[in-house]
Design brief:
With 56 residues, this protein is mainly alpha-helical. 79% of the residues lie in helices and 0% in strands. It has one domain.
Length: 56
């Protein structure tokens, strides 16, 4: 799997997890799941900005 493909997968899964935490789960558990999903989205967006180290 290419690096950008993996980043897209992490971005989509993070968005799904964040939405699940927002809509499906309530209380402190929902806040934790939401935070985990948002962190995955932010890190994958930052990964798009990172210059590739092993450019072939």
């Amino acid at each position: 799997m290419e690096g950008t493909s993996l980043t897209w997968v992490v971005l989509i899964i993070g968005a799904i997890v964040a939405l699940a935490g927002w809509f499906l789960i309530g209380g402190l558990l929902g806040a934790g799941v939401l935070g985990f999903g948002v962190a995955a989205v932010i890190l994958s967006l930052l990964d798009f900005l990172r210059p590739t180290i092993n450019k072939q």
